Amino acid sequence: xxxxxxxxxxxxxxxxxxxxxxxxxxxxxxxxxxxxxxxxxxxxxxxxxxxxxxxxxxxxxxxxxxxxxxxxxxxxxxxxxxxxxxxxxxxxxxxxxxxxxxxxxxxxxxxxxxxxxxxxxxxxxxxxxxxxxxxxxxx
Length: 139
Prior knowledge:
Elements (H helix, E strand, L loop, with lengths): L2 H5 L13 H6 L1 E7 L2 E10 L4 H13 L4 E5 L3 E4 L1 H17 L2 E5 L3 H9 L8 E2 L13
Parallel strand pairs: 2-3, 2-4, 3-5, 5-6
Antiparallel strand pairs: 1-2
């Protein structure tokens, strides 16, 4: 059984490891401005066929000068080693270039990739998305 099938079993899983054209077409990346930066939210499966779209979005946001990038994995349905490598690259770039990276935890099947590889505690995960607006001051 492949790592993909152990981490993300599905009914009717295609054992060849290839995806249908509909799955790649349904994948998209939302980028939402927020204070000091942007929230990047991939929707669908992050794998070799789609990781470039996420990477481009992150690179564009950093090039535009964002101080904080929130990578929100809640909409990710599957992630292989290319997605893991993407998060590690973004983390290294943030540390080197002086911008902040926060990663919103994805579903259990996605988080398992980080746990199995021993990287869960080495990355800047947050349980819930940081507030988009400042909290109101008490009266």
